[in-house]
Write a structure and sequence with these properties.
By secondary structure, the chain is α/β, with parallel strands linked by helices. It folds into 2 domains: about 15-155, Carboxypeptidase-like, regulatory domain (Immunoglobulin-like); about 170-440, 3-Layer(aba) Sandwich (Rossmann fold), CATH 3.40.50. The chain contains 12 helices and 19 strands. The protein has helices at about 10-15, 150-155, 180-190, 210-215, 220, 240, 245-255, 270, 275, 315-320, 400-410, 425-440, and strands at about 55-60, 75-80, 100-105, 115-120, 120-130, 135-140, 145-150, 170-175, 195, 225-230, 260-265, 280, 305-310, 325-330, 330-335, 345-350, 355-365, 370-385, 385-390. A 10-stranded mixed sheet has the order 9-8-10-11-19-18-17-13-15-14. The chain has a 4-stranded antiparallel sheet with strand order 3-2-5-6. Strands 4-1-7 form a 3-stranded mixed sheet, with no helix packed on it. The radius of gyration is 22 Å and the shape is globular. The protein starts with 9 loop residues before the first helix and ends in a 7-residue tail after the last helix.
Length: about 450
């Protein structure tokens, strides 16, 4: 049964131990790869030697649901048991925080597979880590044998301390929306602990969730979350974004290492902050770091179905794990993207530091300025080499049926997770991959 807390509980039991990889980031992969004595000025316990008796530990790292493979996760055996992670967001730059010594380490492939080779016989603490997702387990390694972990052993945790004190997941807050349901992606990934806030205008929850405004008015509370998701909704939060204190809180949150994910009409969470606006220029035309008027970029044509080109090789390979998700067209991998809202927000151009994950041929609606061509559809950027921001012009699988029932039959919205489908669409898969990506330490985006 799904477990999720509500922000109304924030001020009471606010924040049990969270999880970050600050003790283990010594390379560009979470968990690091330091072997004692291999880096200048670093000393530590020597790696054990066991010539002729070593073995390999193999397996597949899965999402908490035990079925979706996780690419780029680090599997390692440290010299000492890792500490619990600090509860607040941290500036987790790859290569800058590592102080641990790992005896053996490897990284999962696009299909989640790994082989940790050369492990000496004995009882060891094995760590599987993707950013603030961390599974810790004790393994007993025999001589001259190959050890294969079960899917339950090698999946990421569903909640903090699920199977042991080292098990961790990021602290996540999700603001609901009228047109988007990122919380359902988290649910289908198998994550059982995250806080849900009310962000919808029409499809408000019968559970009477605390409003998003209560979160963004307090930087202290925001910094307790590693990732904040802002679903696409109506213009509910425009007044909040006119508040200078709230704009300052958002900037300070990302500066401190927070991860912010926004979609479509929620683009003003980027556009209205001069410090962030320069990374993405939204239509119409160039605005640089000067925020445009709210809603000015809501120009896209409704009902588009786009074969979006995947611009990242690892993302393309990982999406290939799922049937009917990737198609080769003109020698380029594409993913079908839909659920474009009438007046969806179009991007114009990006800064050199902003990474494009998928792009596609799109057009503006008929009553808007004539705009057409290939446009970025999913992008990320690092902020001050510390925090991360993700933006998509499209949604997850939408809430169209609920909206129709609301407007035509005066039907209340369902409570989470009753409105979630049981499977992920191709574009939901893109979001899932990026959840793994934004959870990791920060490295320069190329």
């Amino acid at each position: 049964m799904l477990h999720f807390s509500v922000v109304g509980l924030l001020l009471a039991a606010f924040f049990t131990v969270s999880c970050a990889d600050s003790s283990f980031q010594t390379g560009e992969s979470d968990g690091g790869s330091v072997i004692p004595g291999t880096e200048a000025g670093i000393t530590g316990p020597a790696r054990p030697t066991c010539s002729g008796t070593s073995t390999s530990i193999k397996g597949v790292v899965y999402a908490p649901n035990g079925t979706d493979p996780v690419p780029g996760a680090t599997v390692f055996i440290p010299a000492t048991v890792p500490e619990l992670f600090p509860p607040d967001v941290q500036c987790e730059v790859c290569g800058s925080l590592g102080t641990s010594y790992n005896f053996w380490t490897t990284v999962t492939d696009f299909d989640g597979t790994f082989s940790l080779d050369g492990v000496c016989p004995g009882e060891w603490t094995l760590i599987i880590q993707n950013g603030r997702f961390r599974r810790g387990l004790v393994v007993k390694v025999q001589e001259n044998t190959e050890m294969t972990l079960t899917a339950d052993q090698s999946r990421l945790p569903r909640k903090v301390a699920e199977k042991g004190p080292l098990d961790s997941i990021p602290r996540i807050a999700v603001s609901t929306g009228d047109y988007d349901k990122m919380e359902c992606v988290l649910h289908n990934m198998g994550i059982e602990e995250f806080d849900i806030l009310e962000g919808a205008t029409y499809l408000t929850s019968p559970q009477k969730l605390p409003p998003l405004g209560g979160l963004v008015q307090s930087l202290e509370i925001m910094k307790r979350y590693n990732i904040i998701f802002i679903n696409c909704t109506d213009n509910t939060w425009e007044a909040a974004l006119k508040d200078e204190k709230i704009r300052q809180n958002i900037e300070a949150y990302v500066t401190a290492g927070g991860r912010l994910y926004v979609t479509d009409w929620s683009y003003d969470w980027i556009e209205q902050l001069p410090a962030l606006a320069g990374f993405v220029d939204f239509e119409p035309g160039v605005s640089n770091e000067s925020p445009e008027a709210m809603n000015a970029a809501a120009l896209g044509q409704e009902g588009l179905q786009v074969d979006a080109v995947i611009k990242d090789d690892t993302l393309a390979k990982w999406l290939g794990n799922f049937p009917n998700t990737v198609t080769m067209k003109n020698n380029e991998p594409t993913v079908p993207i839909g659920y474009f809202l009438d007046g969806w927000v179009m991007m114009h151009e990006l800064s050199a530091e902003t990474k494009v994950w998928v792009e596609g041929q799109v057009a503006s609606r008929r009553d808007a300025p004539a705009i057409s061509g290939v446009r970025p559809l999913t992008v990320t950027f690092n902020f001050k080499n510390c925090g991360k921001v993700l933006y998509t012009s499209y949604h997850t699988e939408g809430r169209d049926e609920e909206l129709e029932a609301f407007f035509n039959y005066n039907t209340r919205a369902k409570a989470f997770p009753q409105y979630c489908s049981t499977k992920l669409s191709p574009q939901d898969r893109v979001l899932e991959f990026l959840i793994y990506d934004i959870s990791k330490c920060v490295k320069p985006i190329g």
